[in-house]
Amino acid sequence: MTSVIEQQLQIPTGTWTADPVHSSVGFEVKYLGVATFTGELTSFQATLADGELTGTAEVSSIEVKDENLKAHLQAPEFFDAERHPVVRFSGTAAAPGRFEGEITIKGVTKPATLEGEITGPVTDPYGNERYGLSLRTVVDRTAFGLNWNAPLPGGGFALADDVTLKAELSLVKAA
Amino acid sequence: MRILAISGSLRRGSHNASLLRAAGELLPPTDELVVWDGLRDVPPYDEDDDGEPAPAPVAALRDAVAAADAVLIATPEYNHSIPGALKNALDWASRPLATNVFRNKPVAVIGSSTGMFGAVWAQAELRKVLAAMGARVADVELAVGHAADKFDGEGAVTDDSLRDQLEDALTTLRAEVAPVLVERRLVFGESPLDDGAREDADEPALLDDRNPLEVALL
Question: ipTM score here?
Answer without folding.
Answer: 0.85
